[in-house]
Amino acid sequence: MERYKQSILSLVLMIGLAGCAGHPVIYPGKMEPGTRTYSFAFSGENLFPVYSLHQSVSPKMDLNLHVGVPFWGSGFSMTYLAKGIPGATRFTKINAGYIYQQNQSVELNIVREWHHRTSKLSSIMLGPRITWILKDVREDKALRFGCVGGLAFRKRLLLEAGYTHDFALNTMKQDPDSNLPTGHHPVTGLSVRLIYMGK
């Protein structure tokens, strides 16, 4: 019975801690200035959904507040429309933010987006991602490079996947005390999320 309980606990920890670096939610399209909406992100990075509030402050910029339970996944980010205008079918967006996670990080995403309001597949997003882990489970730092992509359906569901890799050599990939992956571990850079977007 004791072994069974340990197996269940290990499974829960694997699911909840598989991705140990959080990521801001990049809302598809560009909201009209002055409008506000929300989203819920379900992922292996967090046991509980992360709530995000998205506020458009200008034709070029949106601000985002992320709230996790109890704190994991919480943070803030901004999305800047580097190329394109609201209502266009093609955008280039720059997203930067800070997320509090087991491995705290600052992140930069440069996303190319193809946007179709009337299609079932309303957005396709793809671009490079840079994650700078400020403090991991061993209070170490790491710099990771990779990419992120997403498919949005009717601006209600967003399926997002990304990966960043740490190219540093001779680094400790697992904390010997907690057995959790550090900021250098490959699994730390893996992210798969399903995001529900409100109106």
What does this structure look like?
The protein is mainly beta and 199 residues long. It has one domain (2-197). 8% of the residues lie in helices and 50% in strands. The chain has one helix at residues 2-17; strands at 36-43, 50-56, 61-67, 74-83, 90-100, 104-115, 121-135, 142-153, 157-166, 190-197. It has a ten-stranded antiparallel β-barrel with strand order 1-2-3-4-5-6-7-8-9-10. A hairpin with a 3-residue loop joins strand 5 and strand 6.
Topology:
Layout: H1 2-17, E1 36-43, E2 50-56, E3 61-67, E4 74-83, E5 90-100, E6 104-115, E7 121-135, E8 142-153, E9 157-166, E10 190-197
Antiparallel strand pairs: 1-2, 1-10, 2-3, 3-4, 4-5, 5-6, 6-7, 7-8, 8-9, 9-10
Overall number of strands: 10
Proportion of helical residues: under 10%
Distance between the termini: 47 Å
* The number of domains: 1
Strand content: over 45%
* Biggest sheet architecture: 10 strands, antiparallel, barrel
Count up the helices.
1
Q: What spatial order of strands do you see in the largest sheet?
A: 1-2-3-4-5-6-7-8-9-10
Considering the chains and any ligands shown, give keywords for the structure.
199 residues, mainly beta
Task: Report a brief summary of the structure.
The protein has 199 residues and is mainly beta. It has one helix at 2-17; strands at residues 36-43, 50-56, 61-67, 74-83, 90-100, 104-115, 121-135, 142-153, 157-166, 190-197.
